[in-house]
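Predict fold of Rod shape-determining protein MreD; 160 aa.
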Amino acid sequence: MNRRGRLWLLPVTVLVALLLALLPLPAPVQGLRPYWLALVVAYWVIEEPGHAGLGFAFTSGVVADLVTGSLLGEHALRLVVMAFILQRFRAQLRFFPLGQQALAIGGLLLNDRVVAAALHLLLGLPQLPWPYWLAPLVGALLWAPLFLVLDAFRQARRPR
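Predicted 3D structure, encoded as tokens:
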């Protein structure tokens, strides 16, 4: 992939993930919204570790905190924890079939909910309702299609 392709693809995917996070949903399905930004960050940490690491996760998280109006640093902490775990197991995850990757990503998204719940507990903030605990399952189901779409864009930018 040429340098010019990298310059626009990473921020565009983060921007799309942030827009999907802001998209209004009906109240009954609000809790099922996947953590789009975590899915996008996970993809880039796995596929482009030279350009997407802990700094990328932290910056994306701070932007998400500012855009969503959440506690400053909450998304940043959650994404850095996830990126750290992904970096540690990247070599194994890259060669998993997509179904196994989806299970691993689902586990990471569940871990993200645990980190968020612990943070809310420590700060005395209200806990998320139980439907929000189903969102990691939705994220795991969306991992394969999202991975294939992002991979197609990334591969299309490679010089022949």
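The mean pLDDT is 91.
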